[in-house]
Structure formats: structure tokens, C-alpha cells
Amino acid sequence: MEEETYFPDTDLDLSFTSTTTDRTFPCSSARSSLARSSLTLSFNESRLSSSTTTTTTTNITPLHHRKWDPRWSAIKAATNLSSDGNLHLRHLKLIRHLGTGNLGRVFLCHLRDCNNATFALKVIDRETLSNKKLSHVQMEADILSMLDHPFLPTLYAHIEASHYTCLLIDFCPKGDLHSLLRKQPGNRFPLAAVRFFAAEVLVALEYLHALGIVYRDLKPENILLREDGHIMLSDFDLCFKADMVPTLKFLRRQRGKSKRNCFSGGGCFGPVAGSGEEEEVFPEFVAEPTTAFSRSCVGTHEYLAPELVSGTGHGNGVDWWAFGVFIYELLYGTTPFKGASKESTLRNIASNRKMKFPQAAEVEEAGIAEAKDLMEKLLVKDPRRRLGCSKGAQDIKQHPFFDGIKWALIRHYKPPEVVGGVARKRGHVEHVKRRRWFWKAHDCLMIRNRNKGSHSYSLLGSHTKRISASNYYDYVHNNNPRKNA
């Protein structure tokens, strides 16, 4: 196995010396030399101060919306116990290899003597990378140090030692959205789930754009699922930064006006004379990097915008194009311009070919018309006419597809119950409870029927009602996987 050749011992003591030298001990491979380096974690100063001259606890509290997270408490405890007040690599214990990306490998780890504080450690060997990829590594580290958002990862520590760069970030135990999508009936999510995931991704993109960051790598594989079922964007090595000047605009809108009077002829339930329209002024805050420009052709080919494929230069609009492709894939299990090969896919994107929707085999879900309209406005090949390019997420939030969402409370919304998702384990518990309930009810009814003989009960009807009340979604998918497809 690849993990075993890289880390044959998962309980490694990675601190063999207390010096700060970059020297590595002789070993069988350059990769395994990571275990022989004398590394010290250097904290992002905006998150956690490790200065030994600090006399108050406020200076060592992370300046972050999740400052009460147990992970920060565990890190603080480890630094307090350290002889020099710093967190060293010997405080970390590697558990297993999570995956390999374009730049490096990611490992699950936790602080020693604190199994509850788990992290993901991204390890990058700079000696194996070209200068272009080294700039991507630096870009990702810089962007991670800027982030402070519930749907974006937290950078707990930045390691620079020898020829390795290591980033200590959040671990998302539920995997990525692409893997979850492939577990769904028909490889597609129900519309309610698509709306939930799209709304959270939209909020994350809005935050990035407010910082002048163009993401350029939106796809289900880069959307991780936290333990609570909410999303977290990952992989920022393909981003680029641009100047962004927030503006406050005032919009004028017409709205109906009616005067109601309980003591007049109109009564309390209808308009009376004098009704009409009035003009209201709505303030609108816009923080969108509309001047962003780059000529680099990077990203995943099925998600590339036409202006990125042509190489004529692109800006913030590539993220809103990718957002439309993202919604399409969640709804239909494929991307809208996918061809038989990579080259044919790129030709379809660059051509004047219009996007087509698959023919619905059954009656379409309520709200699918609004979803199609949103995708059509996002997947406009001219970025000047594409929804979101001028006013950013504000325009997209106002689309009817997102009607009813209270954006300020979105982080507290309950994640959707989907096959293989967070609710699946709860569904298993419910199944056990239903089984226990069934036999308990069976025993009670047998005793009552034996004693009285005059009552008849429908066990099947009661059982069905119980299933419907407890976890109808789980029951439907266990009995007919294609019914909600």
C-alpha cells in the first residue's frame, strides 16, 4: 500500500532533535526524510500568539470566529506545557494517509494526549515542484492565512522546514461532495439538497470575492463535508488575488402600497381608496473584484469558462460560470458540456453550442424551473452578460431559486438527509429503534388479544405510520431507490 511505503509506522515520533537546523538524517527516500527533520510549528500570528513575553491570556487567544473551538484549546494547552512555549512537531501524532493532491499529501493527525483535537496536515515537498507550482503553494498558504469563515478552512499552523511546507488545517470526516453525489440514486441530489449545498457554496464564494480572491477551482471534489454536514471549500492553490473596492449602491424599486383601515369601508382585509405604488430606495453592498484579470489557463476542464478556454483573459466571472456547472452536476450527475474526450469538452465550451437539459423521465420536482433559469443565466458565454459578474453574489442571492433562504442564519440550517450522508447513521439508529418498537408492540398486542380477544390491531398499519413519522426518506430509499431519483 502507498501509505505503508511512506509511513510504515503510524505512531511516529517526528522530533529527533531540539535544534532548529534544516539538516535531515540519512534515510531510504526523500519523502520519508520528513520523519527525520527537526521541525517546529510556526503559528500564524493573526490566529495565535506564541510569544513567551505575553503576560495576558487575551494575546494568546486566536482571533477567529471559532476561537472557542476545542482545537484551539488543545493547541494552547500543548504550547503551555512546552519547555519553550512553542508547539513542536513532537506534539503531533500522524494517524493515516488521507489522500494525494496536485501539490502534496494530506494526513490525519492529532495532538498527543488529546485524541479529540484532530487535524489535516498537508505536506508539500518543494524539491519536487516546478517554480510555477511553488508559486501555487505560496498562494495557498497566503490565502489560508486570510480566511475567517465557517465554510472555509482554518489555518492552525504553517510549517516551513528543510524543503517541506506543511499546513495544519481542519479535518472534514464526511469526505467530499463528489463522493457523496456518486452514492445518490441516479447520481443526483434532490432539489432541496442542491439548493442547500449551492447556497453554502455561494456564501463561501461571496466571502472570497470580497477579499479580492478569484477561486478558479470550484468542483464537487473540492467541497468537503464537515462532521455536522455543512460544507467547507478546500484547495486554494489555483486562486489569484486582485484589487477589490467595496461599494454601496442605492437601488430604486417600485412596490405596491395600500392603506388599510378597520373603520372604513374596506375593512381590515382589503385595500381602500388611495392604494397605488410607491418607490423605495434599497441600499446594496457590492464587494466583487470586477477588475480582476488573468491569462493563466488553470482549473478542471469540465468547469472551465469559455473566456478561460480561449486564453484571451478572464476575471471574476469564471467562478460564476463554474457555479452554474456545479449546480447542473448536482442536479443531473454530469456536466453540461461534457464530450467524449477532454478535447471535445473544451470545444463544446468554446463553441456557440447552447446548454441542454436532460429530458425528464418523470414529473419534474417543484422548483426545477427556477433552477434551470438560474443555470441559464450563469452559463452565459459572454461574461459581460453573465449573472454575478457585475454585482457578485448579491444578484444571485435574489434569484427565485434561493427564495426563502435567510442568509444570515444559513450556518445554522439543518443539512439535508441524503443517502450516504450525515443522516444515514441516524437512519440506522432509527431502524434499530423501529425494530425494537415493533417487537415490543407485538408482545403487548399478543397479551391484550389473549386476555380480551375483542380488539383487533393492524400491526402493518402501525409499523408503516411509525416509519413515516420517524424517517420517511430513509424508508423510501431502502424500499424503492428510484422513487425519489
Automatic annotation (TrEMBL):
Keywords: ATP-binding, Auxin signaling pathway, Cytoplasm, Developmental protein, Growth regulation, Kinase, Nucleotide-binding, Serine/threonine-protein kinase, Transferase. CDD domains: STKc_phototropin_like. GO terms for molecular function: ATP binding; protein serine/threonine kinase activity. The keyword Ubl conjugation does not apply. Residues 92-402 form the Protein kinase domain. One of its GO terms (biological process) is cotyledon development. PANTHER family: FLIPPASE KINASE 1-RELATED (PTHR45637). The lineage of its organism: Eukaryota, Viridiplantae, Streptophyta, Embryophyta, Tracheophyta. It comes from the Eukaryota. It is found in: Cytoplasm, Cytosol. Its EC number is 2.7.11.1. It catalyses: L-seryl-[protein] + ATP = O-phospho-L-seryl-[protein] + ADP + H(+); L-threonyl-[protein] + ATP = O-phospho-L-threonyl-[protein] + ADP + H(+). Serine/threonine-protein kinase involved in the regulation of auxin signaling. Acts as a positive regulator of cellular auxin efflux and regulates organ development by enhancing PIN-mediated polar auxin transport. Phosphorylates conserved serine residues in the PIN auxin efflux carriers. Phosphorylation of PIN proteins is required and sufficient for apical-basal PIN polarity that enables directional intercellular auxin fluxes, which mediate differential growth, tissue patterning and organogenesis. Acts as a suppressor of root waving. Pfam families: Pkinase. This is non-specific serine/threonine protein kinase. It is an enzyme of class 2 (transferase). Belongs to the protein kinase superfamily. AGC Ser/Thr protein kinase family. GO terms for cellular component: cytosol. It comes from Hibiscus trionum (Flower of an hour). The keyword ATP-binding applies.
